Here is the input.
Amino acid sequence: MKVGIAGATAYTSLELIKLLLRHPEAEIAYLGARREGNPRISQIFPSLKQQIDLPTAGLEPEDIPKGVELVFVTLPQTVAMQYVPKYIKAGYRVIDFSADYRFKDADSYEKWYKSPHTDPDGLKKAVYGLPELFRKEIRKAKLVSNPGCYPVSVILALAPLIVRELIEPTDIIVDSKSGVSGRGRDVSEQSMYCECNENLKPYGVGGHRHLPEMEEILERATNTKVKITFIPHLVPMDRGLLSTVYARLKSLTTTEAVTNKMKAFYKDEPFIRIKDPDDEPPSTKDVVGTNFCDISARVADKRVIIISAIDNLLKGASGIAVQNMNVMFGFPERLV
Here is the structure.
C-alpha cells in the first residue's frame, strides 16, 4: 500500500519514515515539506541516505502521486487543518499528528489553542487514535487524530481504574516528565542545550494544552466526569516519557487486586505491559525504541499510585500512528 507524509521534516516524521521503511505492507510514495527547492529527504535527514532518497514535494493534493491511499499529516497545529480537509476531499484517508482534530468541539480547541478552528465538520468526524479504547471506530475512520504524548501515558494508566470504578475520577493528580524531543524540532529557548542540560523544569503548570484532551477523552471512553491536576516537566534526555498518577481509591483494596484488574482490562492488547507487584516500576529505558506502554500500580493507604512509561516519539507519536494505520487497513497490529 502506498502512503505519504505531509510535513516530512519533523522529528516524528523521521521516526515514522524509519517505521514505514521496514513495514512489509507500506511503501512511502510521497514526502511533502515546506522547503524551497524540494530537497531529497536524505539531505534533511542524512541518516536516511541509501535507505530512501525521495525528493520532497509540495503539500497540495495535486502534489501527491497517484496510488497513495493514506496520508500522515505531521504539520503543526493550525497548519494541519488547512490541508486535512483537502486530503479528505481528494479521497485520501488521513492520520493527523497535530491537536487540530482531538476535540469534538471547536470552542474547546479555540480556548486552549488560541486560534479559530477552520474545519469544524472535520472535528465532528475525526476519531481519536488510541486503539486500546477506540479500535472499532478507527477501523472505519477516514480521519484519525493521533493522540498527544502526555495523554497516551495518562489515559492508558487511568482508563481501567475509572471503568472498573476503583478510583474517585475527580480527584486525580498527574506528574509527567518528558525528554526534550517532546518540544519538537522548531528552535525555542526552552529546547536550547544551555536551558535543558542539567536542568529539570516544570512548564504549563495548571494550563497545559494536553490537560483538556486527557479529561475529554477519558470522559468519552468511560462516560464519567473526570478532573485532573496535571504538571508536566522537561528533563535533560532526548526521548522517553514517564507519568506518575495519584488517585484516591473508592474503597480499600490491594496492589495485587488493582494489578489484576488492569491485566484483565488490557489482556488482548499487543502494546500494553502491566508490571507485576514484585517487578521494578516502569522506566523510560525499558520502552525507548518501542511502541510499548509499561504500567504499574501500587496501593498506598487510601490512594493508588500508577506509573506509566512510553517513548514519546513512538507510542506517543509515530509508533501509535503506524498502529492506527494497521487497524485502519487490516494489517497485523504488531507490525510497528
In short: The domain at 150-311 is CATH 3.30.360.10 (Dihydrodipicolinate Reductase; domain 2). Residues 41 and 199 are 33 Å apart (CA to CA). The longest helix spans residues 314-329. The mean pLDDT is 95.
